[in-house]
Design goal:
- This protein is of the alpha/beta class and 585 residues long.
- The protein folds into 2 domains: 213 residues, FAD/NAD(P)-binding domain; 233 residues, Alpha-Beta Complex (Polyamine Oxidase, Chain A, domain 2).
- Helices cover 32% and strands 16% of the residues.
- It has 18 helices and 22 strands.
- The strands form 6 sheets. Strands 7-17-18-19-16-20 form a 6-stranded mixed sheet, sandwiched between helices.
- Helix 5 packs across helix 6, helix 6 packs antiparallel against helix 7 and helix 11 packs across helix 15.
- About 13% of the residues have low confidence.
- InterPro entries: Amino_oxidase (IPR002937), FAD/NAD-bd_sf (IPR036188), Flavin_monoamine_oxidase (IPR050281).
- Its cofactor is FAD.
- GO terms for molecular function: polyamine oxidase activity.
């Protein structure tokens, strides 16, 4: 049987051993998205010399994926800089001239972001008629009033009544419906249109939240997400330019591409004595569901050092290389954690961290770009929104697989056409997005064309000449787009997810302070009396740190949340070794 051997070249040479005696730490960052790059960059700038970034895919960027077709750049992942006042992504882009070609129309201040604030949204029904502009405006005002109410439950400690089921979707749908039905001035035909528009707006909201349905989103926690003031900005040259700027200060040898991690073996100093090799795990997809993968495979064994030189963490890669480290910063998505947390960590995660992973939500939001030879929409149209009249009285929207296309909420017009050509960007989320990902391009293009013909009432709309779409849900390195606070979860779960391991006495979670503590999960009372100095004592603190958008309590789901979370975890280590680096100056 093939064995996985530790990377001994950098660990056993005299220089590296000398660094360890002086306390120079080795840090491994898992993931080269915004969080991982931000963490690595911050550490290197503060004097850390032994930093390695392991990226499973063939490129950096994570959920930033800019695709250049012809002269245009299309964003399959992150698209907007959300807010400008104090947003580190905005300041990085602005300082480097990335927003110089951003048009006024691409500086949207609206809550629901479009590619352009110019023009008007065209709300069309499946019967081929356009909803009058005044009806759309009246409904939009009403919906936004109710949306503002959803923020008050968290921000003002407003109690949630049982009828809402603590669900944003249930509360919003019923509140808007009641107001529409109680309006004495609207004729029944207008009321029916407005009732049907509720579902369309909730589909848009679901795409923004990356949830299957807004019924899944916690009402009591919804208002904790914080919007940064200022406009939303698009980067004409591509959001990937921000990623490249972050990576510029990182030496090329630090980042290893195509290097998926199989397992993080932590708390090695307190584990049983081990021999010199790690038996390889069985073959298979390292992203397979935890229920299928379990915790099979041998645990790693030490690298022959005496006890005081024992590495606290061993990072086992899919190619069987084992990289010893003092600290590991895990930036994988919540979707990956949900799939493989049982096999990804040895020993297993503490029960309260596992519970947080289960409670928090992550869904799939996909884009469908359609390029046409000529526009069939008018110059004043900035989007085409699909309103199904037969959904006026519907509850939660879950469609059978063959009707997945009904979850497409609409298509935005990419602006300006001089840059993009004649392109529409469709949005779909939830389980229906996963069905779409399984279809081939031809089938998706055909279905989208038929929808556009049906809703516009124009049977002569040609098929697009090109289609481009994302597939975040089925991507084994992401398993979703971004996170949200699901019904039953709260910001406290985000904090639990972000807490480093092993837990220090001062950061014990309430659920973890009971007699159910397990070795390697929570520091026992005996361990808590031992020194947590990085160079002294038997318990190495902050062996496994967690970052990524899902770990930021106020800015989850955003690129700035991801970047800030990476800087946050780097700051923990910088503070931990502050005295060491001050002595070296």
């Amino acid at each position: 049987m093939q064995s996985c051997e530790s990377s001994g070249d950098s660990a056993d040479d005299p220089f590296s051993r000398g660094l360890r005696r002086r306390g120079q730490p080795r840090v491994v960052v898992i993931g080269a998205g915004l969080a991982g790059l931000a963490a690595a960059k911050a550490l290197l700038e503060q004097g850390f010399t032994d930093v390695t970034v392991l990226e499973a895919s063939s490129c950096i960027g994570g959920r930033v994926q800019s695709v250049k077709l012809g002269h245009a750049t299309f964003e399959l992942g992150a698209t907007w800089i959300h807010g400008s006042h104090g947003n580190p992504i905005y300041h990085l882009a602005e300082a480097n001239g990335l927003l110089e070609e951003t048009t006024d129309g691409e500086r949207s201040v609206g809550r629901i972001s479009l590619y352009s604030k110019n023009g008007v949204a065209c709300y069309l029904t499946n019967c081929g008629r356009r909803i009058p502009k005044d009806v759309v405006e009246e409904f939009s005002d009403l919906y936004n009033e109710v949306y503002n109410l959803t923020q008050e439950f968290f921000r003002h400690g407003k109690p949630v009544n049982a009828e809402s089921q603590n669900s944003v979707g249930v509360f919003t749908r019923e509140e808007v419906r009641n107001r529409i039905r109680d309006d004495p001035d609207d004729p029944e035909a207008t009321k029916c249109l407005k009732l049907a528009m509720i579902q369309q707006y909730l589909k848009v909201e679901s795409c923004e939240s990356s949830s299957h349905s807004m019924d899944d989103v916690s009402l009591s926690a919804f208002g904790e997400w914080t919007e940064i003031p200022g406009a939303h900005h698009i980067i004409p040259s591509g959001f990937m330019r921000v990623v490249e700027l972050l990576a510029e200060g990182i030496p090329a040898h630090v980042i290893q591409l195509g290097k998926p991690v199989r397992c993080v073996h932590w708390d090695q100093a307190s584990a049983r004595p081990r021999g010199p090799e790690i038996e390889p795990r069985g073959e298979g997809d390292h992203n397979q569901d935890a229920g299928e993968g379990g915790q099979g495979g041998e645990e790693p064994r030490g690298d022959g050092r005496d006890e005081e030189e024992q590495w606290p963490v061993l990072v086992e890669c899919e190619d069987c290389e084992v990289i010893p480290a003092d600290h590991v910063i895990v930036t994988v998505s919540l979707g990956v954690l949900k799939r493989q947390y049982t096999s990804f960590f040895r020993p297993g995660l503490p029960a309260e961290k596992v519970a947080a992973i289960h409670r928090l939500g992550i869904g799939t939001t996909d884009k469908i770009f359609l390029e046409f030879e000529e526009p069939f929409w008018g110059p004043e149209c900035n989007s085409i929104q699909f309103v199904w009249e037969d959904e006026a009285e519907s509850g939660t929207l879950t469609y059978p697989p063959e009707l997945w296309y009904r979850k497409i909420c609409g298509f935005d017009v990419l602006y300006p056409p001089e840059r993009y050509g004649h392109v529409l960007s469709g949005w779909i989320c939830g389980e229906e997005a996963l069905v779409m990902e399984k279809c081939d391009d031809e089938a998706v293009a055909e279905i989208c064309t038929e929808m556009l013909r049906q809703f516009t009432g124009n049977p002569n709309i040609p098929k697009p000449r090109r289609i481009l779409r994302s597939a975040w849900g089925s991507n084994p390195y992401f398993r979703g787009s971004y996170s949200y606070t699901r019904v039953g979860s709260s910001g406290a779960d985000v904090e639990k997810l972000a807490t480093p391991l092993p837990y220090a006495e001062s950061s014990k979670l309430a659920q973890g302070s009971s007699s159910k503590q397990q070795p390697g999960h929570l520091l026992s009372s005996k361990c808590s009396e031992q020194s947590l100095d990085p160079n002294k004592g038997s318990i190495k603190p902050m062996q496994v740190l967690f970052s990524g958008e899902a770990t930021h309590r106020k800015y989850y789901s955003t690129t700035h949340g991801a970047l800030l979370s990476g800087q946050r975890e780097a700051a923990r280590l910088i503070e931990m070794y502050r005295d060491l680096f001050q002595q070296g100056t």
